[in-house]
Write the structure tokens for this entry.
Amino acid sequence: MTARAIKVRQEDRSAAAGYLKKAADNYEQMLVAFNASNWNAAATLAVQCAISSADAICVYGKGVRSVSQDHFDVCDLVAGVSLEGAEEKSKQLRKVIARKNLVQYECRSVNKFDADEMVKVTTRVYQWARETIGEI
């Protein structure tokens, strides 16, 4: 069985800083929302932060980002980047993206436990991206 091709767009590696800036903006607002007990907003911003962090890493490490309709494809791209910790962070990213439908499309509200878990995992992914790429 051959691996399925992931739809990607070529990006100049200097664009990684722009994706990291988006991740930083979402990260900061995620913390504000979480500290205000706004679990739905915190979880939504966690998803956005995680995806922007992944885009930053992929552009930085490979000069591409996912344009696939399947958000899990970005996890596979991260896993394939030749950077220390990429495989582990890919798994963490997958945990956040797995909750995307619940957070953004279902009528059930996010509870404190779910938001807390998403914030913790997203923080690990974001901090790794920031440490890997450097300051914005």
In short: Helices lie at 16-35, 39-62, 73-79, 86-98, 100-105, 112-133. The chain has one domain: 12-133. The first strand starts at residue 8 and ends at 10.
